[in-house]
Automatic annotation (TrEMBL):
It holds the Pfam family Aldedh. InterPro entries: Ald_DH/histidinol_DH (IPR016161), Ald_DH_C (IPR016163), Ald_DH_CS_CYS (IPR016160), Ald_DH_N (IPR016162), Aldehyde_DH_dom (IPR015590), MeMal-semiAld_DH (IPR010061). It comes from the Bacteria. Keywords: NAD, Oxidoreductase. This is methylmalonate-semialdehyde dehydrogenase (CoA acylating). Its EC number is 1.2.1.27. It comes from Gordonia asplenii. GO terms for biological process: L-valine catabolic process; thymine catabolic process. One of its GO terms (molecular function) is methylmalonate-semialdehyde dehydrogenase (acylating, NAD) activity. Residues 24-482 form the Aldehyde dehydrogenase domain.
Length: 503
């Protein structure tokens, strides 16, 4: 899968349980964000390469869908045990290519494992319904069947967890998959592919296609691919949804976010300040569930800002493999883009309370560093508010009332996650009912649902109507079929051209 030439690895596609170099000749560099060093070259598929990988998934489908559920689930259990035993290896790969700190990388793998746990229960999740004697001597039952080869396209910020939202369920339900990871941190998926081989998954069931728009476009348009599960930025999610559905596929396309936390005057400010730091700066803000806007209601803003500053000043910024609290950003270009948002906020008149642009990190001189940045007195027409920044930048917006805060959130085009901090159960209950966001936390800053619930936002944070994992995930990767049967009974013979009714 990966061949090392003078420390730089070649990261190939993967099909039929082995590496596939492809024929495009195109590659993209993969870097360690904490040092800036190029550590790998990932293959970028041509249309031909993509077709070869998709054909492997197509060829493997008939046998896999007919493999007994018991055997499919046994393979899933073996995969679960192997992953659980070796998750630190995967976490280290994530830190080396993404930059997030070791504990956070392990957390990502653990949340992905939850979906594998769920998929181990597929026999229960796939059970259909049966009605005996629905009409005289007629029985009706329903089954759910796999779709075929399915495409999974993931973003850079969770190189393992996001594809794991989908493939355990897809595979356990009898589909074959093609995963197209982010070209920025592609190695985690190849490591997972090798683990599947060890778990005994037949060739062609789990395939990896590396690449950029060319690879994605082939997945979106190739008739062999029956569904697309996409996670990434909103403009691409919108494009993927429009193109995939236009080619007759079912599509779930999860997009970007701008997550607000409301802090009411009666909130426990220490709890809220901890939460703002953890959810604002964890993974350097490169989480779709990061809190990027703290909405301070009433006269608590000065105290809240002071508490956030006090906590943030204790954070160690540096190489994620060396015990830091927060690592670098994914690329130099992204680091510079995030910094330019801070510049724009400053020019627009917001107050830069903590300035990450001048951070001194415990990491390589050429690493992509930007420290935690806290910006107060942010207004909703500033670009630091209107745009998804996807970096360690927390804005504080001051408002007078709960209603003003709620109106702001509901007017925002994104609707991924949100949180309210309060000790007032009535206010919390009102918020969960009124807010137009898919995932809501009450005194919980990053309300990522457990695997047996479904993950997904509203508005520009999700295109399609099916969220990831949970029962919605099982429905997405299966088609319903209802069978009406009558076993031969001579008394029911005879012609009747009318529409079938009951007797
Ligand atoms: P991205 O949209 O740039 O890339 C996502 C995937 O799309 C990658 O595999 C990439 O190769 C591919 N891609 C990029 N440009 C493309 C194009 N023009 N045509 C076709 N495919 C293309 O996103 P990213 O920068 O990797 O990830 C960060 C974004 O993902 C953020 O906006 C974040 O909010 C979002 N995200 C959302 C969720 C969620 O659950 N809603 C979860 C994680 C990340």
């Amino acid at each position: 899968m990966t061949q090392s030439v003078r420390g730089v690895q070649t990261i190939s596609h993967w099909l039929d349980n082995k590496p596939f170099a492809g024929t495009s000749g195109n590659t993209a560099p993969v870097t360690n964000p904490a040092t800036g060093a190029v550590t790998g070259q990932v293959a970028l598929a041509s249309v031909e390469d993509a077709r070869t990988v998709i054909a492997a998934a197509e060829a493997a489908f008939p046998a896999w869908r007919d493999t007994s559920l018991a055997k499919r689930v046994n393979t899933m259990f073996r995969f679960r045990e192997l992953l659980n035993a070796r998750k630190e290896e995967l976490a280290a790969i994530i830190t080396a290519e993404h930059g997030k700190v070791a504990a956070d990388a392990l957390g990502e793998v653990t949340r992905g494992l939850e979906v594998v746990d769920l998929a181990c229960g597929m026999p229960h999740l796939l059970k259909g319904a049966f009605t005996e004697n629905a009409s005289s001597k007629i029985d009706v039952h329903s089954v759910r069947q796999p779709l075929g080869p399915v495409g999974i396209i993931s973003p850079f910020n969770f190189p393992a967890m996001v594809s794991m939202w989908f493939f355990p369920i897809a595979i356990a339900a009898g589909n074959t998959v093609v995963v197209k990871p982010s070209e920025k941190d592609p190695s985690a998926t190849n490591w997972i592919a090798e683990l599947w081989v060890e778990a005994g998954l037949p060739a062609g069931v789990f395939n990896v296609l590396h690449g950029d728009k060319t690879a994605v476009d082939e997945l979106l348009t190739n008739p062999a691919i029956k569904s697309i599960s996409f996670v990434g930025s909103t403009p691409i999610a919108q494009y993927v949804y429009a193109t995939g559905t236009a080619h007759g596929k079912r599509v779930q396309a999860l997009g970007g976010a701008k997550n607000h936390a409301i802090i009411l005057p009666d909130a426990d400010l220490d709890l809220a300040a901890d939460a703002m730091v953890n959810a604002g700066f964890g993974a350097a803000g490169e989480r779709c569930m990061a809190i990027s806007v703290a909405v301070a209601v009433g006269d608590i803003a000065d105290d809240l800002v002071a508490k956030i500053v006090e906590r943030t000043n204790t954070l160690k910024i540096g190489d994620g493999s060396r015990g830091a609290d927060m690592g670098p950003l994914i690329t130099q270009a992204h680091r510079d883009k995030v910094a330019s948002y801070v510049d724009a906020g400053e020019e627009a008149g917001a107050t830069i309370v903590l300035d990450g642009r001048t951070v001194e990190a415990d990491g390589g001189a050429d690493g992509f560093w930007l420290g935690p940045t806290l910006i107060d007195h942010v207004e909703t027409d500033m670009s630091i508010y209107t745009d998804e920044i996807f970096g360690p930048v927390l804005s504080v917006v001051r408002v007078d009332s709960y209603d003003e805060a709620l109106e702001m959130i509901n007017a925002n085009p994104f609707g991924n996650g949100t949180a309210i901090f309060t000790n007032d159960g009535g206010a919390a209950r009102r918020f969960q009912n009124e807010v137009e966001v898919g995932m809501v936390g009450i005194n919980v800053p990053i309300p990522v649902p457990m695997a047996y619930f479904s993950f997904g936002g509203w508005k520009n944070s999700l295109f399609g109507d099916t969220h990831a994992h949970g029962t919605e995930g099982v429905h997405f990767f299966t088609r319903g079929k209802v069978i009406t049967s009558r076993w031969l009974d001579p008394s029911h013979g005879g012609l009747n051209l009318g529409f079938p009714t009951h007797d």
